[in-house]
Amino acid sequence: xxxxxxxELLNVEVAYARPDVQLxxxxxxxxxxxxxxxxxxxGILERCPEIDLSQQKIGIFGKxxxxxxxxxTRDRVEIYRGLIADPxxxxxxxxxxxxxxxxxxxxATEGSSEAEAPTE
Length: 120
What we know:
The chain is α+β, with helices and mostly antiparallel strands. It has two domains: 3-79, Ubiquitin-like (UB roll) (Roll), CATH 3.10.20; 84-115. It is built from four helices and five strands, in the order αββααβββα. It has a five-stranded mixed β-sheet with strand order 2-1-5-3-4. β1 and β2 (22-30) form a beta hairpin. It starts with a helix and ends with a helix. InterPro entries: Mopterin_synth/thiamin_S_b, RnfH, RnfH_sf. Residues 88-120 are annotated as: Disordered. This is UPF0125 protein SAMN05216526_0545. Belongs to the UPF0125 (RnfH) family.
């Protein structure tokens, strides 16, 4: 491969993560290749048939992009899964649980100090 041919190629990655496995597939593509084309060329759709690009969003290094975004060298195209829980609701639940635990511990401490107080 001569220099002109090499300069027309880009090294990119296509990434997808499930709870049980993370895939990062290196790929060499031509200049002008789009994010959707890289996903198709990577073979990830065959390896992970649950991916539905009509429903799932894609991005490059954490920033959402459209499927027709042209790639640059060293880009990592990421396929995002849908959220299984609303982040705000989950945060509220954790805070409420932590507060309940603190309240329960405070009651236990108050109860034990009364029991341990010396009588005159």
